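Problem: given the chain below (106 residues), write out its structure.
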Amino acid sequence: MPNISKAAQVQTVITTFEMTPGTCQDLLEALTDAYADFISKQPGFVAAGLHVNDAQTRIANYSQWERREDFLAMLRTPEMRDRNRKINELCKSFEPVMYDVAETFG
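Solution.
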């Protein structure tokens, strides 16, 4: 489970996927499979979550990595490059962005 904290020494990556309601479930399954079978087993992986909006036109992915380099190394693997090509076919766009936690509440 992700630990969202300013004190956490992790790299946060938030990826937004834009798709049609007709491809939402297929994309969600592809992302779930990618995390279950590959991403979660990569060095430096900490945790992740997938969120779907009510219109099924966007999926937000929140992931945490021990280091920025761990996330980048995972992206560069042949398996993830192949998976990303298939994921790209299911959505209009997707963009992973690295963030630092600025503040938390609650």
